[in-house]
Write the structure tokens for this entry.
Amino acid sequence: MNLVRGINHIAVMTDDLDRFVTFYTEVFDIDVVFHETTPAFRHAILRTGDDSWIHPAEVLDSSHGSGRAAMFDRGHLDHLALSADSPAAFEQLRQRLIERGATDGRVDDLGAFHALWFEDPDGMRGELVVIVDPQLRGIHAPEPLDV
């Protein structure tokens, strides 16, 4: 049984969300399924496949908004997320991450998907996602989910 379906999304920082979104939508014909402006940041979800997307975020005065040219010194990846293959796989992976002390196990409801944060051995934050609405409708800010 596969527990992970693949990469769900890559979250990247950008200095100009509009420019970023325009590039990916015009060049790759990617659909924007979510866009939000908050007092602290602006972000969007650009769907790249059935269960994958790019998640750009623009945060004022971030030093990570522009990529650097040198390989392995680019620095503006915020996090990556993996897609659990099913709700049962999500729960199994959640338990494994709890046992390793990589997460507190809290799950957030984001409307179209549920997610939990974990920390890998290098200290990078990662996200585990299970999609609950394949149409990705009703995406909203994280709300705690009782599990």
